[in-house]
Specification:
The complex is a heterodimer of chains A (about 1100) and B (about 375). Chain A is of the alpha/beta class. Chain A contains 36 helices and 42 strands. Chain A is globular, with a radius of gyration of 29 Å. In chain B, about 25% of the residues lie in helices and about 30% in strands. Chain B contains ten helices and 19 strands. Classes of the chains: A alpha/beta (about 1100), B alpha/beta (about 375).
Chain lengths: ~1100, ~375
């Protein structure tokens, strides 16, 4: 049956900013849905607050709204666009929740918008735990048994019925506090008693414990003919109890018999039918008792999810695209399989390889946060690897993480020894953490039994047995030097995923020129190549080779036949950004995808290398060819040699590579790649080095007569003190060569400096620290520009809303700058161009400036893609990354028609989104250390409205009346007066802590005094809990002062009260409140905005413009 | 890990595939085919339809869950050889009784591991299923290639005599319910039917499912003539799966021809092909066949797609079928016939495996359909008699 003809336009809701639990995968799914539906002739209206997405590129939809994802705003969009249907299933939980709200509050009915893909009933059934459980039981499926009780006796009765151990969960307590696991009656008495007393409603849920059970997921699809397929089975290495987003997962399932697997499949069929997902994809989770195979249904997501993105990448079956087509009426058998071309999508992929996903965490950025993994997801990114076997995939995934690991329990620079591989404790294996996998390696090295390790970790012993073979091979390798290493053993090691760097660490040192010599990665590589032990590339084909695959979606393995079918077309390799982490995420994938499209348009065959399964760049139809590989020197060089025809010989055509779009990851490889003969496109390696080497860079700025904050370098406390005294406190200190302001801090005095150095020595042992003058009260600006080697054109100038000292990634930014004089802007423009020309920038460049006391300083120059490139592109309508990629390929800016800084119409504000709500215990304030996970954009004709939209997009609720709590450090008191006055004028009731209140009283402003937490109840936290204040302005100063306000700021986060931690942020918030009080927010699509901007442009000035 | 013994697979086209010995040490000839099921290697090994075939598994890790009692599809493995990428060094499953290696060795199955199975499968895909020799006994390429070329071709080969039962027997293992602990239909007070099942290499799960649907089953040898079957007064006759070329099983085709119209008939796999031949159709050999658990089959009655379990190297030629025979099921990958129905003769059959084992259970309704057909015919008879 063909597609529906009764609907013509479809609204798609994106997932908003990247947060923990919702990342690039929804850009991937949204892009697939947009592309599929537009190809079918539908008019697509898209709303997403996240400007860094590919899906919000104006050519992806017919009308693109970068607006806050709130029911009010989306209603305005619906009112303007009048879509026939809403597809709620490709925008994550955010999209689903928002669609539900619009259904519940009658907006969809009012405007005659149909929900397609999932009905409100199905969504409600899947989302409500109680309803879901009951429906499953009614359908004859098993779920964890449980009952809510109000007395200890009832608890005992229930437990006797369902069997021990039981989970005790008190109702309505935060984060499950007061609960626990009871293994017997006497424990249950205690825990239930405690739980009942903790619960405000004296209720606890007694539930069958499935901790330690095996966890499986099935990614399934169903169409309106009730055709049902399982796209992929996923087995979690970490058992039940760890969120699947924080689990290491394997596809397909490895430890099920066919009977057990088919039983889950049959259950999945019943689940999706019972919930009533008529078309689309769902993720269904099961727990399986390893002792008797009992399967329980845990939950289902009636939408595409992170797991479905993983399943799509793992199998080559594009779930989101197919879900979109099913939603408009197609059936699975009507949709062709892109990869085989001859077979339909109504089949189940068969995998002849193994996929391993490992999450990446960022606990180092959040000291004080509990690093134990549990039911709430904490990871910020993930890496996926594909290998012919589990061991190969596991080791590839580990080295793809970019955490210094070169293999299973092997870390760069750490030769294996008893010191570097300490025997773990039982708890190291029992407690799930980011390091547990590596503790398992050490346990195996210490000779622990497979069964003991399996019992402690809850890993299925099959996986532990596989890991044992890795450690056995490691021991075998350790008996040899490079010269004596047998070819068979080396081949076996490579087949098991060992990296050259890992082998170099394991082998015994040899003797060279009479001295012991430790082989390097490149030594192993040369030896291996000489023996002809080379990787081949296999295709992901959905069908285990039963049909020919037409899509060059490739992974490396050590086997006999190569399927890469390299062409001799002009081509370029683009290196992606690897797993998401704080400081490197979606923005860089956006740039890589643009580079790929731009270079394909110039006639190049584009070849993507990346290992992040969430991304658009790893969609098999983004580039001409996709290598799903770790971004290590070895893996990238292998791809390059293969594509250059240099696998077996020195003579080939070296393929150029683009390394400036994927963030720090590819840039870190650039030196090694260049040394191996890889032609690097764009800005020269020497220029990159010039910008990164502080000595050389300072010299360059001196020559150009451009100011830079005084700075110095120190390797120990004494010299650090000397430098700081020369520069003058406060100083900005950080280790050399780090990403995202990692471990950056401001020291206000000798003591603070000493404390920092003590901590920093652990951060980068042996590396010196950099000490810069901290420009207090300075304005910071970011400039993104493009060069062609000679000319430099500015793409956009952004002013930070927060003052200097807040990491640029965490600061709100506004375009155009709203508080900078034309004089300073002209200096910034001039300096940008001169620096760019001096570095002969070919491609993207980002410069950070600061203005203090009327002087312009250059803080940093990065001749590569920056985090702000997509934001600038969305604000200006100029595809900066595309132009830069083509410039890197040799086009001049004149040829590309990009010769002047693009004009702006209205204000564009980018706001950062921080994960404090996910990390109770994290210090809540903005600092030089970047901690945001994502960003949103707001645009409007005034700054206040644009800022208000950005804050709303970032889930901040801007109050327009009510109470405001002010507590600022002495240093900020001078400036708080004006903000308080404005708030009073706007009718706010001001509450303030003693010192702040005293100051306000002196200024003649009313303020109700509130105790600090340390002064006793009723205090600030009580005030927040009471709901009387809608705004908290709390500015900390210095590391000690941070602690005082921590309880207050955490409370604001917990109760969802708008929290501002800088005065500049507070001033901007006041502008937003004023704007909201004056005029309602309006929405406008990007397409319309660009059209208007062009019209304004054409009417006002340009007559000489020729095309 | 123990010292590994080298093993080799030689194909009649002269290609040699290397690996290490698994299971029994020895040398066997057969037709090399591949199976894309990701689970269920034990069911594959014990499916008599694989008699005379060297099966290559595309899933890389085989043996992870060991071998257990309940999942056998017959009393021992039938494959001529077994080829895998990575045989598991460890068994992990609560039902496992034995490791795969021990099981293969115990039953004399010559197998190999460490093979680049993807390359081998791509070779078979392009070159077709062909004769081969697997050896872990001083393998030498020239000798093995010669032996492969000397092996009989599957075309025209009747392999049923090797796998069928010698004497008729009653299937007593009720085995209803998931793990064989449920009530039987008789216990539930549902009607029961006497089914005579031709054993061309029958899989136990077919018998289990027939039993679960209320059938008392008499299993008879493949050569049993129609008259003997009718003398047992069956409510219906089942034609089982089995190995080899259907066109060579002439005695069974004759028997089925004699049964047409006299009793309801349900055929699976080889049984389907034999029914097709008995109805006057022709069969042909597929290039490399269908073997796996992910094949889309459309049931024309409903338009719905079943994900189904397949194991066939031959198929019924649609154009050869006479009038009065309907094509009920087609394979959406290559459009080949997967099911037919001859309403005048109360007969229907499917090429694929509704009993799964291994594979998805989407097509179980066919057993119900058979029972309904028998009930219908029985009712008609009782009405016409009364």
């Amino acid at each position: 049956m063909p597609r529906r003809t009764d609907i013509h336009s479809i609204l798609i809701i994106g997932s908003g900013p990247i947060v923990i639990g919702q990342a690039c995968e929804f850009d991937y799914s949204g892009v697939q849905a947009c592309k599929a539906l537009r190809r079918e002739g539908f008019r697509v209206v898209l709303v997403n607050s996240n400007p860094a997405t590919i899906m919000t590129d104006p050519q992806m939809a017919d009308a693109t709204y970068i607006e806050p994802l709130t029911p009010e705003i989306v209603e305005k969009i619906i009112e303007r666009e009048r879509p026939d249907a809403l597809l709620p299933t490709v925008g994550g939980q955010t999209g689903l929740n928002l669609a539900m709200k619009l259904a519940e509050n009658g907006v969809l009915d009012r405007y005659g918008v149909q929900l397609i893909g999932a009905s409100p009933r199905a969504i409600a059934l899947a989302e409500d735990r109680e309803l879901f459980k009951r429906a499953m039981l009614d359908a004859g499926l098993r779920v964890p048994l449980g009952e809510t009780v109000t007395t200890v006796d009832q608890a005992l009765e229930v437990a006797a019925r369902i069997g021990y151990p039981v989970l005790v969960r008190p109702s309505f307590t935060l984060g499950g506090s007061g609960g626990g696991i009871a293994y017997n009656e006497s424990q249950l008495r205690d825990i239930a008693d405690r739980g009942l007393r903790t619960s405000p409603v004296t209720q606890v849920l007694i539930e069958q414990s499935v901790l330690g059970w095996k966890e499986y997921e099935l990614e399934v699809m169903r169409d309106r003919m009730d055709n049902f397929v399982v796209v992929c089975s996923i087995e979690n290495l970490d058992p039940m109890g760890v969120h699947t987003g924080d689990s290491i997962t394997i596809a397909p399932a490895m430890t099920l018999t066919d009977r057990e697997y088919q039983r889950l499949r049959e259950m999945a069929k019943i689940v999706i039918r019972t919930v009533g997902v008529e078309t689309g994809g769902s993720n269904i989770q099961f727990a399986v008792n390893p002792r008797d195979g009992t399967p329980l249904v845990i939950e289902m997501n009636p939408r595409v999810s992170r797991s479905s993105a993983l399943a799509s990448k793992a199998t080559g079956f594009p779930i989101a695209k197919i879900a979109a087509l099913l939603a408009v009426g197609y059936t699975l058998d009507e949709i062709p399989n892109d990869i085989t071309r001859v077979t339909p999508a109504s089949f189940e992929p068969s995998l002849d390889y193994v996929v391993v996903k490992i999450p990446r965490w960022a606990f180092e950025k959040f000291p004080g946060v509990d690093p134990t993994l549990g039911p709430q997801m904490k990871s910020v990114g993930e890496v996926m690897a594909i290998g012919a076997t589990f061991n190969e995939a596991l080791q590839k995934a580990i080295r793809g993480l970019e955490i210094g690991a070169v293999g299973f329990g092997a870390f760069a620079g750490k030769r294996l020894s008893p010191e570097t591989t300490p025997e773990p404790s039982d708890n190291d294996l029992r407690i799930p953490t980011a390091q547990r996998l590596f503790h398992v390696a050490n346990a195996l090295r210490a000779g622990w039994d497979i069964e003991r390790i399996a019992a402690l970790t809850g890993y299925d012993p099959w996986f532990v047995a596989q890991m044992r073979t890795i450690i056995d091979l490691e021991a075998a390798l350790a008996r040899y030097t490079l010269e004596t290493l047998p070819a068979d053993l080396l081949r076996e090691a490579k087949e098991n995923g060992f990296s050259d760097a890992q082998i170099a660490l394991i082998l015994q040192p040899t003797v060279r020129n009479g001295a012991p010599y430790v082989p390097t990665e490149m030594d192993v590589r040369a030896y291996r190549k000489a023996l002809g032990i080379l990787p081949v590339y296999h295709r992901i084909d959905t069908c285990a080779a039963e049909f020919e695959a037409y899509t060059p979606y490739l992974y490396s393995t050590y086997a006999t036949s190569d399927e890469s079918a390299v062409t001799d077309r002009p081509k370029v390799i683009i290196l992606g950004g690897g797993p998401n982490r704080i400081g490197q995420g979606l923005e860089f994938d956006y740039c890589c995808v643009h580079a790929s499209f731009a270079l394909r348009d110039l006639g190049y065959e584009t070849i993507m290398v990346n290992c992040n399964p969430e991304t658009v760049s790893t969609d098999y139809d983004t580039s001409d060819r996709l290598y799903f590989e770790p971004l290590t020197l070895e893996d990238v060089l292998n791809v390059w040699e293969n594509e250059s025809g240099m696998r077996n010989s020195e003579t080939g055509t070296p393929v150029p590579m683009l390394v400036q779009f994927g963030g720090q990851t590819p840039l870190n490889l650039a030196k090694g790649l260049a040394a191996a003969g890889v032609p690097i496109w764009g800005t020269s390696q020497d220029s990159i080095d010039l910008a990164e080497d502080r000595g050389r860079f300072s010299e360059l700025l001196r020559q150009l007569d451009i100011m830079q904050p005084e700075s110095g370098m120190a390797a120990d406390l004494q010299s650090a003190r000397r430098v700081a005294q020369r520069i003058g406190y406060p100083v900005l200190v950080r280790p050399s060569y780090v990403l995202g302001g990692r471990a950056m801090a401001i020291a206000y005095d000798d003591e603070g400096l000493a404390q920092y150095l003590h901590e920093a020595t652990q951060i980068s042992a042996g590396q010196p620290v950099l000490i810069d003058r901290y420009l207090e009260d300075a304005f910071e600006l970011d400039v993104d520009a493009v060069g062609d080697g000679e000319n430099i054109v500015i793409g956009g100038i952004m002013e930070h809303v927060e003052e200097a000292g807040v990491h640029s990634g965490d600061s709100a930014m506004v375009m155009p700058p709203y508080k900078v004089s034309a004089y300073h802007l002209s200096i910034i423009r001039d300096e940008t161009i001169r620096i760019g020309q001096a570095l002969r920038v070919k491609g993207l460049m980002n410069i950070q400036f600061a203005i203090k006391d009327d002087e312009v300083y250059v803080l940093e120059v990065n001749p590569r893609a920056s985090r702000t490139v997509p934001f600038v592109a969305k604000a200006t309508g100029v595809p900066l990354a595309r132009i830069a990629a083509q410039a890197a390929a040799g086009k001049t800016l004149a040829e590309l028609g990009f010769t002047r800084e693009p004009p702006l119409n209205g204000f564009f504000v980018k706001e950062a989104v921080l994960p404090f709500d996910k990390f109770p215990g994290a210090a809540v304030f903005l600092s030089p250390e970047m901690r945001s996970t994502g960003e949103v954009m707001g645009h409007a004709s005034t700054f206040g409205h644009a800022f208000a939209k950005a804050e709303m997009g970032a889930n901040q609720r801007i109050p327009t009346s009510g109470g405001a709590l002010l507590t600022v450090n002495d240093y900020d008191k001078g400036a708080i007066g004006r903000i308080a006055r404005d708030l009073v004028k706007l009718g706010f009731t001001i509450y303030a802590t003693r010192g702040t209140a005293a100051w306000l009283h002196q200024l003649g402003l009313p303020a109700i005094v509130v105790n600090k937490v340390s002064e006793g109840s009723p205090h600030t936290v009580d005030l927040i809990a009471s709901g009387k204040v809608g705004l908290v302005i709390s500015t900390p100063l210095g590391s000690r002062a941070y602690a005082d306000g921590q309880a207050l700021r955490s409370a604001a986060i917990r109760y969802g009260v708008m929290l501002v931690t800088t005065l500049t942020g507070a001033a901007a918030t006041v502008s937003a409140i004023k704007a909201l009080r004056q005029k309602e927010l309006r929405v406008r699509s990007l397409q319309e905005h660009y059209r208007l901007t062009m019209t304004v442009e054409n009417n006002t000035a340009v007559t000489s413009h020729t095309e | 890990m123990k010292q590994r013994t080298r093993a080799m697979l030689a194909l009649e086209d002269g290609t040699i595939w290397h690996g290490y010995a698994l299971g029994a040490i020895g040398e066997r000839a057969g037709e090399v085919v591949f199976n894309t099921s990701m689970t269920g290697y034990q069911e594959v090994l014990t499916d008599p339809s694989y008699y005379g075939q060297i099966v290559v598994m595309t899933a890389p890790h085989i043996g992870n869950t060991g071998v257990n009692r309940e999942d056998e599809e017959s009393h021992h493995p039938w494959v001529a050889g077994f080829v895998v990428r990575a045989a598991s060094p460890y068994v992990s499953n609560w039902r496992a009784a034995q490791s795969l290696h021990e099981y293969l060795a115990e039953h004399g199955v010559v197998a190999m591991t460490g093979v680049d199975t993807r390359a081998l499968v791509r070779h078979i895909r392009t070159q077709g299923a062909m004769r081969a020799v697997i050896s872990s006994q001083n393998p030498e390429p020239d000798r093995l290639i010669a032996a492969a070329r000397a092996a009989p071709s599957m075309n025209g080969l009747d392999l049923v005599p090797y796998v069928t039962c010698a004497e008729p027997y009653h299937w007593v293992e009720g085995n209803p319910g998931e793990w064989g602990r449920g009530e039987t239909p008789a216990q539930r007070g549902e009607p029961t039917f006497h089914v005579v099942a031709y054993d061309f290499g029958i899989k136990r799960n077919i018998l289990r499912l027939l039993a679960e649907h209320g059938c008392r089953i008499t299993v008879v040898p493949a050569t049993t003539p129609a008259s003997e079957v009718l003398a047992l007064e069956p409510d219906g006759v089942f034609l089982s799966n089995g190995p080899g070329d259907p066109a060579a099983v002439t005695y069974a085709v004759q028997a089925v021809r004699d049964l047409l119209g006299k009793t309801p008939l349900f055929g699976i796999c080889l049984g389907h092909q034999i029914l097709g031949l008995a109805l006057g159709g022709k069969t042909y050999k597929l290039h490399f066949g269908h073997r796996g658990g992910n094949q889309p089959v459309r049931f024309n009655d409903t338009g719905r797609v079943e994900i189904s379990s397949h194991n066939h190297g031959f198929a019924v030629d649609e154009s050869s079928l006479p009038e009065g025979v309907e094509i009920t099921h087609i394979n959406l990958n290559d459009r080949c016939v997967e099911g037919l129905r001859a309403p005048d003769h109360f007969a229907f059959s499917v090429q694929y495996h509704p009993e799964a084992a291994p594979g998805p259970h989407d097509a179980r309704y066919l057993f119900r359909q058979f029972v309904e057909l028998m009930a219908q015919v029985r009712n008609r008879r009782s009405t016409s008699n009364g």
